[in-house]
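for the writeup, i need someone to sanity check this before i put it in the appendix. the sequnce is what the collaborator sent (i think, or maybe the updated version? ugh). structure was predicted straight from it, no edits. if anything looks off just tell me and ill rerun, i have time this weekend
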Amino acid sequence: MRHNYQQHPENVFADSLTCGAEIEIGNARFAEALPRLQSLALRTSEWVTVIGGSRDIIARLVAAGVSRTRIRWVSGRDQDHREWATEQALLAGTSSVVLSFLDDIAPRMQQRLKMASKVSHTHSFVFNELPSSTPLH
């Protein structure tokens, strides 16, 4: 059996540590990706799953034309729960797009998320949370 992996959806890791300098951290990268997210979300009637994020992210998706009734928002208590929820959302195969807002991801977890996305044919985007302000002392 031959697999044509070019037909599988892209995995976009908006993490400067995993993708290089071309991708920025935080809300600026989300704003750049929003038109593409809107296009992907409107192609099907499946869920748009948001892991982590904020009310502002949900509001921006709705303003971009994604129906609020199709957005599934999982907050997650901590990094481990958000990583687990992301992997489960990808493996479930019920979402057209999975957006995750995670801190730094271990290489092994990054690989697991990529594989889960390929298996389920789900578009996945992982954004770093905005870094906290640096201490003044």
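The helical segments are 16-19, 27-42, 55-63, 79-92, 107-120. The two ends are 60 Å apart (CA to CA).
thx in advance!!
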